[in-house]
UniProtKB/TrEMBL annotation:
Pathway membership: Porphyrin-containing compound metabolism
Membrane topology, as annotated: Multi-pass membrane protein
Subcellular location(s) per record: Membrane
Organism: Glaciimonas soli
Name assigned to this protein: Heme A synthase
UniProt cross-references to PANTHER family, sorted A to Z: HEME A SYNTHASE
Amino acid sequence: MKNLLQLGAMGLLVAVLALCVVWASKDANKYRKLVWVTLFITFDLIMFGAFTRLTDSGLGCPDWPGCYGHSNPLLAHAHISAAQEAMPTGPVTVAKAWIEMTHRYFAMGVGVLIIGLMVITWRKWFSARNAGVSLKSSVGSQFSRWLPTALFFMVCLQGAFGAWTVTMKLQPIIVTTHLLLGLTLLAMLGWLGASQNHHEPVAPAGRRLILPAGIALLLLVIQIALGGWVSTNYAALACNDFPLCHGALIPQMDFENGFTLWRHLGKTADGDFIPFSALTAIHWTHRTFAFIVIAFVAWLAHKALRVEGLRTTGRLLLIAIGVQLVTGLATIYLNWPLAIAVMHNGGAAFILLMLVMLNYKARLSSRFSAVKP
């Protein structure tokens, strides 16, 4: 119980630091500021989660939620040192323990902030209902109590998968799901943040982008899932040439073992070592599908540039797609450097946010067209 209270105190400290930023802000709408600060920390958490995974620190503390039953690596130093001495390059080292626990502290901080968002919205809703006041403020801006509540349940589910990531020893399907849930959390915060902002009017032509924007978001989610499968199976270097793979357009691949979802890390479903051809199939699929996603999102961004009210989002999407292509190729040609690999993960999260914003704004076009100047 003492260790749990200490862990909770660390998460509360992260949240308090964020709340200090909100309190010191000159923004009169402190709730909106809290939403965007929470989104910013969640984005950073996803980036740091990628760093944790790419440095092979996911088992830096092989238990959960603490580290060898303690609230921080300092108290568990004897256990960590013994594990590191037994296996110097193994999953447990002092550095990896600190990376893993820092990730957990920030995750708990995000959880506290989301609980704060939920409590604030429900209190305001009850106060407004008793006063007979509507919380809808203007076109494109509303005060919803359901989305923060959904965020609370989502962060609880994300925490459960974070625990299973450790207790199930980095099983690929669990780690990939953990990644997807984290990005879903980010997308939901992005939608909540967009609902709190005042947006410039979107031309009626934006209505024509509602369906393409939804399709682009779906394609990106599939691509992120494929990228997560590459990362969790350590298949990033399965093809080290481009545009060919092992000198062939379609190399020898084992899709059956590569895309068997329920299996242990580095193993087939039968418990044998996973063949290299399976890793090749994982990498090649992610690489090939990337061109479909890039082409469609680039086309969508080009269309958005022609619509008043969507031009900034379209411009940012084009830039992000270009950077993502460069970082993806750099991971191949430069032999998977850590900094660029983390940037590639962050780029996917940023594109996701931009597509969420584009979907939100495209849906505003019909509402704005109904409002007289």
